[in-house]
Amino acid sequence: MAGARTAWITGASSGIGAAVAEELARRGWRVAITARSAEALEQVAARHEGISALPGDITDREAIAAVAGQAVALLGHIDVALLNAGTYRPVLPETFSADLFRPHVEVNIMGTVNCIEAVLPGMLRRRAGRIAVVASVTGFAALPMAAAYGATKAFLISMSDSLRADLDGERTGVAVTIVAPGFVRTGLTEQNDFEMPFVIEVGEAARIIADGLERGDAEIAFPRRMSVAMKVIGRLLPGPLRRRYVAGIARRRARDRRRSDG
């Protein structure tokens, strides 16, 4: 295992995080995985010799800094910090509330910021390392039912682009990657009661992410048709056309929900 590449992955007890951890381990990486559930982490780690479980809560700033330190002690250094932990709940007009938004901000935004704060100083000292932030294609353009989730993912994309510019401008040697998945079949997306376009399985998502990390891509957005469509909607369509298109998606989803309820 000498010379193996190393990764610290958050939100790795299930879903995309666990699948990427296993994919990287199969490729010879040494991986430390973090999530709140120690039992679930141990189950993932037990499947591959190269994976070690380090339980922790990313919303606890001091605790996650200690976990990142444990990862460095275990791995020697962190080549890639894949900050994948996140939460999602759909938001509808009748459920719109601060209570729905708060966990999105605390986990998706501040949890990610806590992790970056924990790993960045060590990477700067080494003048090497990659921070890979898992956002979403919903960060490229607003989608119905994603007022909380999509807003936090747009924040992560903007923050990552800004951080990359500063790191590159100062020639620090530290890189930033934005990971922007479309619909991936996981426990989080199981709550969607509408047809998910271009949905892919978690194993395929893990292979795409692992390939991008090994190449050192600045952006890993997939599936391609979904990511291109979202960028066109969010960045190229004039405002009236964009609003009309997204409203049409909302109407179709509302129709789907009524059919499923009926």
Tell me what the structure shows.
The protein contains eight helices and nine strands. It has 262 residues and is an alpha/beta fold. Helix 3 packs parallel to helix 4 and helix 4 runs parallel beside helix 5. It is globular, with a radius of gyration of 18 Å. The chain is 52% helix and 15% strand.
The order of strands across the largest sheet is 3-2-1-4-5-6-9
Termini separation comes to 57 Å
Q: What is Rg?
A: 18 Å
SSE arrangement, N to C: EHEHEHEHEHEEEHEHH
**DSSP strand count:** 9
Helix content: 40-55%
Based on secondary structure, the structural category is: alpha/beta
Topology at a glance:
Elements: E1 6-10, H1 15-26, E2 30-34, H2 38-45, E3 51-53, H3 61-75, E4 80-83, H4 98-126, E5 129-134, H5 149-169, E6 174-181, E7 184-185, E8 200-201, H6 202-215, E9 219-222, H7 224-236, H8 239-261
Parallel strand pairs: 1-2, 1-4, 2-3, 4-5, 5-6, 6-9, 7-8
Keywords:
single chain; 262 residues; alpha/beta; two-stranded parallel ribbon; 52% helix
Task: Provide a concise account of the structure shown.
Helices cover 52% and strands 15% of the residues. With 262 residues, the chain is an alpha/beta fold.
